[in-house]
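The records we work with from here on pair a chain with its fold. Here is one such record, which you should read through line by line:
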Amino acid sequence: MARILYALSGEGFGHATRSEVLIRKLLKIKEGSQHHNLKILCGGKAYSYLSKHFNDVETIQSLHIKYYNNKVSGIGTFFKNISTLPNQLISYIKIKKIIKEFKPDVVINDFEHLSAYAAFFNNIPLISIGNHHVISNASHNIPARSLWEYFKSLVVIKFVIPHIDYFYMSSFF
């Protein structure tokens, strides 16, 4: 039985629906064995969704994406998230307290930044799940016209998840 801190992005429902399936598998009790002890951290839409399905869900500040004309606005996203820095700091302190009390063996992360940093600074192994690993961990032939977009994506991924011990790349390519 492992003590797992499971943290996920609160933006949209993709991370939440993927995580629901994985969390259910981790909690499933098989005959003759014990289930894992999980604590779930998320914010935004993921919190409203998962707190209806699981008991041990803690709310934290999530990063958000701003859109302009149905396209991601990099500058809008940056300023939206800068405005939440006080709440992010409060959430980071909350995560540090949870880590101290819960003593997780591992952090499973679905593109959530605060728990990734907390795992790194507390020497807790981090398993990162997500389709973003296709960008950061696969080989690509990037056309010259797309290099700037590719570079921006890599910077965002590295900011959100600064260190990974293990990763699971989910993709439909």
Summary: The beta strands are 3-8, 37-42, 57-59, 67-68, 71-72, 106-110, 126-130, 166-169. The two ends are 34 Å apart (CA to CA). The first strand starts at residue 3 and ends at 8.
